[in-house]
Amino acid sequence: MKEQYTDLDEYIADLQASIAQSQGQCAAHHYNLGMALLSKRDFMGAENAFRDALRESPHMAEAMVQLGGICLQRGDLDGCLSYNMDASAYRPKFAVAESNIAFVYLQKRDPDKALKHLEKALKWDPKFIQARNDAAIAYIMKGNYAESEKYSRALIADEPAFAPAWQNLSIALFEQGSYAEAKEAMDKAAELGFDVPEGYRQEVAAKLA
Q: Terminus-to-terminus CA distance in the chain, angstroms?
């Protein structure tokens, strides 16, 4: 295989040729093929490639995480949870898997379970943006708005252009009665590309009227 490619289809073709010649023992090529197919949004092809990677390397946690992502893409929360649980079991201290597990629990409206896994993810990767943002969301769901505000402000200090953190900060401030500050944070989120729900805009406007 070449060291560099300018054409994704050429890269995919070379991977497939290498896999055909290898006659097994090529989990990494299967995984790389899955990633390339994902970039083309060929989810079925990617899923097959990641499954092939696991057939050759049954403990490849990265392939499990990608299969979980494909499950999530089609709305299968339980499938996503199962794959990431397996990834966490096979690869200890895997922050990505723990964060993904937490995300599923947030979708299931279980912030307590989500926070248990976010605590692990952030222990192993303290700057993990998605885990920090999901922690802010979890605390909003629990009604602990001060703690949510703390997480969002810390994340914004490190990642000032991360729009979801501004929106979470806005909600935490709103729920604590800081309506003017909530509007400022909401406007910043919108400026950075966050699609602020119209209903929330109206709630903020009504408090400031």
A: 64
Quote the radius of gyration of the chain (alpha carbons, Å).
Answer: 21
Please state, in angstroms and rounded to a whole number, the distance separating the CA atoms of residues 85 and 97. Answer: 7
Looking at residue 79, its pLDDT comes to: 97
Q: What is the pLDDT of residues 172-203, one digit of tens each?
A: 999 999 999 999 999 999 999 999 999 999 99
89-115 burial by CB neighbour count: b if 16+ within 10 A, else e? eebeebbbbbbbbbbbbbeeeebeebb
What tokens were used for 207?
């408090």
Tokens of 67: 């299969």
CB 147, CB 155: distance < 8 Å = no
Name the token pair of 86: 């397996």
Query: Computed from CA positions of residues 123, 148, 111, 132, in that sequence, does the dihedral angle turn out positive or negative?
Result: negative
CA gap 86, 69 in Å, rounded:
13
Helix then strand then coil, in percent of the chain rounded to 5, is 75, 0, 25
The Cα diameter of the chain in Å comes to 70
94-3-63 Cα angle (round to 5):
25
pTM for this prediction: 0.89
Cβ count within 10 A of residue 74:
10
Dist CA 149 CA 140 (whole Å): 9
- Name the DSSP class of 203: H
